Amino acid sequence: MRRRSWFAVLGLMAAMAVIGSSAQASWRGGAAVRLNELQIIGTHNSYHREISEREQAAYEAALNIPGDYDAFLAYSHATLPQQFERQGVRGLELDLFGDPQGGLYAEPLVRERLGLGPLPDPAWRAPGTKVLHSVDVDYNTTCVQLVTCLRQVRDWSRTHPDHVPIPIMLELKRSDSRAVAVGGVVAPAWDRAALDALDDEIGSVFAEDEMITPDDVRRRGETLEQSALRHGWPKLRNSRGKVMFLLDNDPGPIRDAYVAAGRPSLQGRVLFTNSRAGLPDAAFIKRNDPLGVNTAEIAELVRRGYYVRTRSDVPLRTVLANDTTMLEAALRSGAQLISTDFPQIGMSARYDSDFVAELPGGAVVRCNPVNAPRVCRDERLEGGR
Fold it and tell me: What CA–CA distance (Å, rounded) separates 380 from 385?
């Protein structure tokens, strides 16, 4: 009996060792963590570069808003690959304008008034969606065409296959009515045909297995919201090296057109829409302001299973005041994506400030403070950095 008991104990210990080794190996692959149980820093208007001082003055004169540029737009970002490589950024935001024929935005009103001529980059003449802040008045960008921006992301991603999923927010914009009133061009509407074309444009750069789409979250017989809240988002081990696209626009006509034609849960779509709790397409929810009661509201959305984006600063008020209150609230809230215009120390020095929006310790990614499992370890979330 004693001998059999001793062998039984040895067998149990061996089995436990195997289980422990297997669990440790699976953890190294991210098996215990889902993509919505992380927190990352992304950039706001990730493509934005300032126009010249002469152009800034002409912008303010054209729209009759003196001092506006210095108050809201006097910041510039590194190229997208540099943001990933040197600044630890893991989320982007791009502002999009339709240009199916090409050339619609090649001769901005501001440059025309200054006698500067058309924009010199030939990419402005090519057909396809353009990336810029405001047609005619604030157009400097690190990548003119959407496909160019996305190829930069794709190429970096393919050389860094262990990166955590990168959310890319897309704001689908139209011309500023003030610019149109003084002679600016009218950007085409984002109707259903334009939205279908946008999905196709994204799909021309990223293969299906390089993206996380609503179809990857939704379960058969359930809405997208039900699937996200009941079963969770994809696991990190299955999401490394991938991107996901989020519609920045508030619920309204664009969102309605995107879910139309029998796609209430975004069946076959590329983008996760910014929606409202209780709607079939609600998996991603934007809450830009994390202050006050919003901190707890965001945390509750995160606990329930939604993917949430908030902001850590508003240009340039936050930086000029050297105020970290918004950043601290954003970090506490558990919002998975925190957007900033100042992701690296030194960027705010021109304003006599050391403001920087970063995760504690300057990490690229961390375990979400609201919903990450106990076994989550920051240092194991992304390799090679």
Answer: 10
